[in-house]
């Protein structure tokens, strides 16, 4: 099976910004920030200039998004989220993600940071252990109260001020403010944890979707996920079908086609190379699979994008 580590991803570098932003005169955060003030492994933006439809894509960095006003639809793996005001969203390196349907009045912020950015200020952090929303098995959408959001926004404003300063210790200060922001989010998450009232069937489907998003390149059979969830394949198929009106196999195939779109959009690999990388027996099988799920060929999908990297 192909390794997810070999697949293309967006990095924090001067070239990735054009994929999620349009040209704008906004001066908040990294937007139009002079090179000498930029910090390796970290970026901060407001939603002004954000491309409203993006992905599917993958990245090598962590992300936290803050919506203060308006709404946007986000997809993380197989999970769909309608994100409204006072919400936080999180994504994990290597996770397939996309966004769409941003309302005209949307406003908020988002932060991108590398897996090593917080090193050096605290004992070594395992982010997925320290912050549950960076674990595939936990919720990556968080609805905060007004006090929590105000506290988070205050950290963002402090980070923005530090970015534009020449003060000593500014990198350490930004790291500390980011940690405190994530800690505030974690406390909000823990405050709401006892109120998780998912019905058993809904819980199984949610966990199934999270497992597929994490392991679909390695495991393609419903029985694989049934084993992880300690249920029978028939039971898993039944609850997924009853809850989503789609089969468990449909979910696995949807995740695979998202990965195919990432490869078609962001690499110069040939269709044949992509088909073998995704473990299809031959290019014709990949073409048939892609057409069945999308209504078009891989080549026609790729032609929608002007450039590849």
Automatic annotation (TrEMBL):
Keywords: DNA-binding, Transcription, Transcription regulation
SUPFAM superfamilies to which the protein is assigned, alphabetical: Homeodomain-like, Regulatory protein AraC
Molecular function terms from GO: DNA-binding transcription factor activity; sequence-specific DNA binding
HTH araC/xylS-type domain boundaries: 206-304
InterPro entries hit by this protein: Homeodomain-like_sf, HTH-like, HTH_AraC
Entry annotated with the keyword Nucleotide-binding: no
Record protein name field: Helix-turn-helix domain-containing protein
